[in-house]
């Protein structure tokens, strides 16, 4: 609970600080323009990546394999799109890194290692039915 509280208070404060500093250096109008353009660009990129992931998902099902990577990609794209909808430059950078396939690959590997460690420690349990 404390981690979430810190996340929801520190991230907006950090975003505000970055926006103010960038605004001081390049001006308010260019800063607002950058935030708006990244939001619009993110929508189009999220849509394209979402359709491509859905295409790969269907192909995996047609081949008879479970679309594990495609599901994980879809989750990353959804989270990345949510970050891009949040006004700010830091969340935009994180959002784009989740939408672009190359950086997303490294993020997925990192998250998978964390999940594997949590399974080993017993923090996540998998039940078979």
Could you walk me through the main structural features you see in this protein, from its secondary elements to its overall organization?
The chain is mainly alpha-helical and 129 residues long. It has one domain. The protein has 5 helices and no strands. Helix 2 packs parallel to helix 4 (89-99) and helix 3 runs antiparallel to helix 4 (89-99). The model has no long low-confidence stretch (mean pLDDT 91). The longest helix has 36 residues, at 28-63. It has helices at residues 2-26, 28-63, 68-85, 89-99, 101-121.
Give the topology:
Elements (H helix, E strand, L loop, with lengths): L1 H25 L1 H36 L4 H18 L3 H11 L1 H21 L8
H and E string = HHHHH
The parts where pLDDT drops under 50 for at least 5 residues are: none
Q: What is the radius of gyration computed over CA atoms, rounded to a whole number of angstroms? A: 18 Å
* Shape descriptor: flat
- Which structural class do the helices and strands define? mainly alpha
Number of E strands: 0
Largest sheet: none
**Fraction of helical residues:** over 70%
Strand content: under 5%
Query: Count of helices?
Result: 5
What's the short story on this structure?
The chain has about 130 residues and is mostly helical.
Q: Keywords, please?
A:
single chain, mainly alpha, about 130 residues
């Amino acid at each position: 609970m404390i981690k979430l509280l810190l996340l929801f208070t520190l991230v907006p404060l950090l975003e505000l600080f970055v926006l103010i500093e960038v605004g001081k250096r390049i001006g308010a109008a260019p800063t607002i323009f950058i935030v708006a353009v990244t939001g619009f660009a993110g929508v189009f990129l999220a849509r394209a990546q979402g359709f491509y992931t859905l295409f790969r998902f269907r192909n995996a099902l047609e081949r008879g394999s479970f679309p594990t990577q495609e599901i994980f990609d879809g989750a990353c794209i959804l989270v990345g799109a949510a970050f891009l909808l949040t006004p700010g430059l830091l969340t935009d950078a994180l959002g784009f890194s989740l939408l672009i396939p190359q950086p997303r690959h490294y993020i997925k590997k990192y998250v998978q290692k964390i999940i594997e460690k949590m399974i080993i420690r017993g923090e996540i349990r998998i039940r078979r039915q």
